[in-house]
Design a protein that fits this description.
Blueprint: E1 6-10, H1 16-27, E2 35-37, E3 44-54, E4 57-66, E5 70-74, E6 81-89, E7 93-97, E8 100-104, E9 111-115, E10 120-124, E11 129-138, H2 139-150, H3 153-160, E12 168-171, H4 175-188, H5 194-215, H6 225-239, H7 249-255, H8 260-271, H9 275-292, H10 297-303, H11 309-320, H12 324-330
Parallel strand pairs: 1-5
Antiparallel strand pairs: 2-3, 3-4, 4-11, 5-10, 6-9, 6-11, 7-8, 7-10, 9-12
Length: about 325
């Protein structure tokens, strides 16, 4: 069905001039004051904003509403940079890598890290309201940033070496990143110095991203598109099983067609945490939503398959630092 959609070919770049020229040419629109006004476009209404952060980093903010189903072909010119994609949209995008389909966007996986060596296709559905912020940073500069914080040069060389490692990650941005983007959204439409706010947001988001990268155990491994797809299917399976006990690594790895060890490593590489930790986090987040909706602590613990209310209370307090009852009173 791709042939029925309007197609745009984007070549992202960490070089500001290359980025602007590529997108301006693809959209057949002129860049005026570092932005493209798309209100006369049949496919989407809104604006593209561009900003040069430094010689090795550029950023792009897309604030549009899609009028039609739209197909984007992403074919970057080089493999020397990394794209951090923050996606705040009213509906998910369909991301294709080597003919495998991944759901990214509003529901989950709204922060995607992609190596520029990967060819990607993206489908965005009609009526989607998108607010997307992209940071394109050279691997060398990212290495320098991380090195200042960690000092582990050997580890960094492994992380950015394409022959050893696929730089790809699907995760949900944390509340600090969400706050930075919410602030940026407030300024972008009404402040004449919006470009400065974009640059500031890049530095804040990079700082948050690197801190999280160093806290988590980063797995160095090559990942195939099929493995990516299987892990994301497994992730969704865990989200659909919150009323039950943790399915177990043996069961999950078998369904993902991997050994238990490989499954745990690839899951952590792509999702950012272990399968069991992810399952617990999602279960407790669901519990929090149910408490806010007016359910009692006992009702929530039963709905989520806990053997006892005290077990739910213990895990909730351990994760959030507050009991469910106190959370209800506070919020």
């Amino acid at each position: 069905m791709f042939y029925l959609m309007e197609k745009f070919i984007f070549k992202y770049s960490n070089d500001y001039i290359d980025l602007c020229e590529s997108i301006s040419r693809s959209l057949n629109c002129e860049i005026i004051n570092n932005s493209i006004n798309l209100n006369n476009n049949d496919n989407f209404k809104g604006k593209y904003y561009f900003s040069k952060v430094d010689e090795d980093t550029s950023c792009l903010l897309i604030d549009v509403i899609y009028q039609k189903d739209t197909f984007f072909e992403i074919r970057n010119n080089n493999s020397e940079f990394i794209a951090l994609c923050y996606n705040i949209s009213s509906s998910n995008f369909e991301l294709f890598i080597d003919e495998q389909i991944f759901q990214v966007g509003s529901d989950q996986n709204n922060l995607t890290t992609l190596d520029s060596s990967l060819d990607c296709d993206v489908i965005i559905k009609k009526d989607c309201k998108a607010f997307n912020f992209y940071i394109f940073i050279s691997k060398k500069l990212l290495k320098d940033y991380v090195l200042k914080k960690s000092g582990n040069l050997k580890r960094l060389e492994e992380l950015i070496e394409t022959s050893k490692n696929t730089i790809v990650r699907f995760e949900r941005m944390n509340y600090l990143s969400s706050f930075v983007l919410a602030e940026l959204e407030q300024h972008i439409k009404k402040d004449m110095f919006w470009s400065l706010f974009m640059k500031g947001a890049v530095y804040e988001l990079l700082d948050i991203y690197i801190e999280n990268l160093l806290i988590s155990e980063t797995i160095v491994a090559k990942v195939t598109a099929i493995e990516l797809n299987n892990i994301l299917i497994s992730q969704q399976h865990l989200k659909n099983a919150l009323e039950d006990d943790f399915p177990g690594i043996e069961n999950l790895s078998q369904k993902a067609a991997m050994s238990p060890t490989k499954y745990k490593n690839i899951f952590k590489k792509i999702i950012g945490t272990s399968p069991k930790s992810y399952f617990l986090m999602q279960k407790l987040e669901k519990g929090k939503e149910m408490l806010i909706a007016g359910n009692s602590v006992n009702e929530v613990s039963i709905a989520l398959g806990y053997k006892s209310t005290s077990h739910f209370v213990s895990q909730f307090r351990g994760y959030y630092g507050i009991t469910p009852k106190d959370y209800i009173l506070k919020y």
